[in-house]
Amino acid sequence: MATAGKADAKQAPKEINFSWEGKNKQGKVVRGDIRAASESVANAALRRQGINVTKLKKQKSTSGKVSDKDITLFSRQLATMVKSGVPLLQSFDIVGKGASNPALAKLLFDIKADVETGSNLATAFRKYPMYFDALFCNLVEAGEQAGILDSLLDRLATYKEKTQAIKAKIKGALFYPVSIIVVAFVITAVIMIFVIPAFKGVFASFGGELPAPTLIVIAISDYFTANWYLIFGGIYAAIYGFSQAFKRSRALQIAIDKYSLKLPVFGDLLVKSSIARWTRTLSTMFAAGVPLVDALESVGGAAGNYVYEQGTLAIRNEVSTGSNLTSSMEASGLFPTMVTQMVAIGEESGQLDSMLGKTADFYEAEVDDAVEALSSLMEPMIMVFLGGLIGGLVVAMYLPIFKMGSVVG
Asked: Which residues of 23-58 are buried (b: 16+ CB within 10 A; e: fewer)?
């Protein structure tokens, strides 16, 4: 019987999204969306709801990606509507129809359909772990069980906004130097392939011996011109190969997470951002009434670094055996003294969530300051780098002209 049940589950028809229009029992025109295996099943389901269907149209399949930014915006919109007293299903309908991303709209209508068929909100979210992690689902479940879904959705939206802001700042800090390096390489390649060969023809007519810097630049230009496809192809293959290896190799991800925290300039920034996200996550979950041991299960992954993930696992094991949070954090060696002292005060006063929140605020401000300082530090260094690179090429090309001018003079 179990085998037959599994076979039936595998052969279950795929549900399709339909948009419909009809009249309810009062004769009022109503519209909506429904998921069903076919048009006949959709019609039957709507008739059981007392709706006389006049139009039923299969929705076009949507392609695209739902980003973390989309989920953050949806969290805030849903929190605002539920807190304002808008019914849950109507909130999903409003947000879904107003979404600019078709993939997000489809996701929200699918969740709405699950809730309409009797699932609670947390269960509906858990069907899409790619978009809603365990932390998100656990907080929603806690809100439903305690009857405070509106306040927990608001807390969850604030948490998503703050963590999204941290991620954006880190990406911005890393993107700036990388973009400058790419631009410098492209400019150099253009000069090497198109500009210097033109100078080379002019220099050939001089008949004299060229200076050493000019000869070096011309040799590099000749190599670029002859092997440009190998150079660009090699760079693309290296970047693509590394990205694929990073996605598939857990060992590589772990190694990068470990060594990134030790980088001279960026390491301190990454440590502060990890602590900010760690304390913000634990504060949000503890304030929602999630037991400390259970909350620590989600905190490690939210920090965004393998070192903190493993450290959190060790902290959780110690807390589960009776140790307090402060001593467990101190034993991990991952947190500065200020953080452990704030946690100790929170445990002694019974305001752990508040102290963790204040710690998160402090480190989020530290990340802001670190990003600004990094930008200020990088700007002159980048100007010197670009000026030296481009200026060196220009001087090397004009040295023969200067030499010829001195001879004529």
From this structure: eeeeeeeeebbbbbeeeebbbebbeeeebebeebee
> What does the block give as tokens for 19?
């948009």
Angle (nearest 5°) at CA 35 between 31 and 36:
115
What is the predicted pLDDT for the residue at 12? 43
The CA distance from 377 to 384, in Å, is 12
Pairwise CA distance, residues 138 & 123, whole Å: 10
Per-residue pLDDT tens over the stretch 182-212: 888 888 888 888 888 888 877 777 666 788 8
Cα angle 345, 347, 349 (rounded to 5 degrees) comes to: 65
Three-state SS sequence of 224-248: HHHHHHHHHHHHHHHHHHHHHHHHH
Alpha-helix residue ranges (DSSP H) falling in 117-211? 121-126, 134-146, 149-190, 196-204
User: What's the length of the chain?
Assistant: 409
- 126 residue type, one letter: R
Q: pLDDT band for 295, please (50, 70, 90 cuts).
A: confident
Q: Which H or E element spans position 253? A: helix 250-260
In whole angstroms, what is the distance from residue 374 CA to residue 367 CA?
10
Structure tokens at 87: 């019914």
DSSP single-letter state for residue 29: E
- How far is residue 19's CA from residue 262's CA, in Å, rounded to a whole number? 54
End-to-end CA distance of the chain: 103
Residue 276 C-alpha from the chain's centroid: 16
Answer whether 173's CB lies under 8 Å from 269's CB.
yes
Is residue 365 within 8 A of residue 276, CB to CB? The reply is no
Pair 293, 316: CB distance under 8 Å: yes
